[in-house]
Amino acid sequence: MSSLAKQLEERISSWPHVFVAPHRFGGREFLFGKAEIGHVHFWGDVDIPFTRAIHDILLAGQLADRHRWLPDSGWITFHMDNPAHLDRALWLMRLSWLRYALKSLPDPALTLQRESESMRLPFDLVALLSQFVPSLRTAPATVSCETS
Questions:
Q1: Enclosing domain of residue 44
Q2: pLDDT one-digit tens code per residue, 33-44
Q3: Count of alpha carbons within 13 angstroms of residue 17, beta-carbon side
Q4: pLDDT in tens, 3-21
Q5: How many domains does the chain have?
Q6: CA distance 102 to 84
Q7: Has residue 43 been placed in a domain?
């Protein structure tokens, strides 16, 4: 395993509710409960599942690349080939971790606020992530019928 992949694994394995397991195509996968938040291959490719909306923002901002085998899915790929790439890979994995944390941690609104500030998330990503926080979801519009 490359030293960057090993460093990534060491850092992510310390996050709350994250478990590390062998990945079926080589490397290590990171799980939040039973959900995969991403995996790293021995050569340094990091593959991460996102919603299509988050995926599209990451691609538009050139923060990641399309997944080589599933280009039309929500999966992204980020290749680490120098030490400067480790921070970006960690940021992308933390973004994936946050989606699952918002669904299961006791105070998702506070978690979103704390993590979005810490990660310096742009507004469009915060808005998309807020859909995973029940108290922040917008209620469907209701139509009022008044008679005169």
A1: 3-103
A2: 999 999 999 888
A3: 18
A4: 898 999 999 999 999 999 8
A5: 1
A6: 28
A7: yes
